[in-house]
Amino acid sequence: MNPQQYVQDKAANSGSSFYYAFLFLPPPRRAAITAFYAFCREVDDVVDEVSDPAVAASKLHWWRSEVAAAFDGHPTHPVMQALMPLAAEFEITAGHLQAVIAGCQTDLDQTRFLDFPALQRYCHLVAGVVGEVAANIFGRRAAATLQYAHGLGQAMQLTNIIRDVGDDARRGRIYLPMSELQQFDVKAHELLQREAPWGYSPRFTALMRFQAERAHATYDKALQLLPEADRVAQKPGLMMANIYRTLLRDIEAQGFQVLHQRTSLTPLRKLWIATRTHLRGR
Question: Which domains does the chain have, with CATH numbers?
Answer without folding.
Answer: 1-109 (1.10.600.10), 112-282 (1.10.600.10)
